Amino acid sequence: MVTETKDQVLVVIQLSGGNDFMNTVVPYGNELYYDFRNGLAIPEKDILPINNEIGFPQFAAPFHEEYMRGNMAIVQGVGYPDSTRSHFRSMDIWHTCVPETIADEGWLGQTIRNIDPNKENPLTAVSIGQGLPRALSAKNVTVTSVADLDSYGLMTDIEVESARSQALQSFKDIYGQAIGSGIVKDYIANTGLDLLRGADLLKQAPATYSSDIEYASNPIANSLRDIARIHLAGLGTKVFYAQHGGYDTHANEGPVHPALIGDLSGAVSDFFADLRSHNASENVTVLIFTEFGRRVRSNGSGTDHGAGGGAYIIGDNVKGGLYADYPSLLPENHDNGDLAFTYDFRGLYSTILEQVLKVEAQPIVGGEYEQLSVFA
After folding, report:
1. Would you call 203 helix, strand, or coil by DSSP?
2. Which residue among 228, 258, 277, 286 has its CA within the 20 to 30 Å range from the CA of 244?
C-alpha cells in the first residue's frame, strides 16, 4: 500500500518510433495473428501466458514476472480518433493532448506548473537524456535536463578547481545582474540561476548512492539507474522522464524488437528491485507509452506505422491486470489495416494526473475521459 507520508512520483518512459504492441503483448490464442505475421509471429512455445489468449514473449520475461506479481497494468488498444501515422504529429498529440491543432504547452509541463507554481524546486521535474521532450514544455516552468548524471554540472571540463570556481562566480554575477532588466532578460536570468541551483543539488545523487543491483549496460538501463539515484537522494523530484528509441521497426524487426523489449523490461525490473531494496518503491509509478502501434500485417521484414497500441503502468500501488479491450484482429474491424484504438490516451493521462499526482485533469487533457481503476 502507498504510504500517506511520501509524495507520489511519476516516471514516464517514452518508446520512440512506435512499439509493436502485437509482438509485445502477443495474441497467441488467435490464429489470425499467425496468418498476418508470417515470419514475425512469436511461436506459441515461446510465449509466457497471461491467459489462454495473450501473453508476453520470452524476451519480455521481466514484464511477465512483474505482471504475475500483480504490479503491472496493461492498457490495451490505446490511441486517439483519426490516428495519423506520422511520428512527429502523433508524438506531438501525445505530448500536448491536442489532436486538432499545434499546441503551445505539454501535458507534463502544465502539470509541473500546477505542482510547483512558484518554481521553488528546480528539480521538480527531471528529464534524463538528450533534449527536452515537448511533454515537459510550458510557460513559467523549470525542467532540469540531464544527459549523464555522473558528468552533469556547469564548466566541469575546467580541471583546476580555483579556475572553475571563478568561472562559476562570473556566471552567477552575469545572471544575477540580469534580473529586473526586462521580460526576456528576467526569463534568461532565472533560467540560468535555476540551472545553477539544480546542478548543485544533483551533486548529491551520485555521492550518496550505493546499491547491490547491477544494471545492464544499455541506454534505458543507464537512464533508469540515474532516475533511481536522484529519487533515492530525496531531492523532491515528482516527475521523471526518459526516452528509449529504435522502435521504428519497418525492417529487421525479428532481431531488433526482442533486443529492445529485453533491454526495457530488464531495466524496469532492475529499477524496481533497486528501489525496493532501499524501501523507496511504494510511491513510484512508471508509465510506458509509445506514439502508435504497428500495422496488423507484417511487410515481410518488419511492420509499418499503425494506430492502436498499448501502454503499461507499473508500481507497487498498481492493481495489475488487463484494462480496456485488445483490438480485434478480424479484418472487418481493422482501422484501414491497423489495430483500431479502443481506449483514448487522454483517459490514461487523466488517470495518472488525478490518481497519482493529484492534479485536476480536465484543463490539461481538454475534456472528461474515462479513467481506469488501476490503483490500490
Report:
1. coil
2. 277
Q: DSSP class of residue 213?
A: -
**Whole-prediction pTM value?**
0.90
* Burial class of 208 by CB neighbour count within 10 A (0 to 12, 13 to 18, 19+): exposed
Q: Read off the pLDDT of residues 302-326 as tens digits, 9 standing for 90 and up.
A: 999 999 999 999 999 999 999 999 9
Nearest CA among 38, 36, 58 for reference residue 47: 58
97 contacts 346 by C-beta, under 8 angstroms: yes
Reported as a pLDDT band with limits 50, 70 and 90, residue 11 is very high
Locate the DSSP E strands across the chain: 9-15, 47-49, 55-57, 72-79, 125-128, 144-146, 239-244, 284-290, 309-314, 321-323, 343-344
Judged by average pLDDT, the poorest of 31-40, 60-69, 146-155, 299-308 is 146-155
Q: Measure the CA–CA gap between 174 and 161, rounded to whole angstroms.
A: 20
